[in-house]
């Protein structure tokens, strides 16, 4: 890992740029089956702070468990989607979750991670 000004070259995460307004490192990450998406690593107010072991573990967990997380969320949201927003025929959980696109991964230095999705295709029809 090499820090140059407010740019970090990380052997696993690639190029990260310090965003002073949000006190975080920003870059891109690719988690299959999705295209690269935004990566934010919160580092409080210290741009010299390295990427922590818990951050690396959280990113690895997100990459290996993304499908499980997305499936769990789809199971929880599908009934509401069908009753409140959709006038399509009933979807399976698989069909519903396949509409989601990963758009960002945010990781706190403690190892907490949040994955955000764009489910725009899910809101094209309304009741």
Task: Walk me through the topology.
Elements: E1 2-4, E2 7-10, E3 14-19, E4 24-29, E5 37-42, H1 53-85, H2 93-97, E6 101-107, E7 113-118
Parallel strand pairs: 5-6
Antiparallel strand pairs: 1-2, 2-3, 3-4, 4-5, 6-7
Descriptive overview:
With 127 residues, this protein is an alpha+beta fold. The chain has one domain (2-123). The protein has two helices and seven strands. It has helices at 53-85, 93-97; strands at 2-4, 7-10, 14-19, 24-29, 37-42, 101-107, 113-118. Strands 1-2-3-4-5-6-7 form a seven-stranded mixed β-sheet, covered by helices on one side. The longest helix is centred in the middle third of the chain and has 33 residues, at 53-85. The protein is elongated and about 50 Å long. It starts with a strand and ends in a 9-residue tail after the last strand. Residues 123-127 have low confidence and may be disordered.
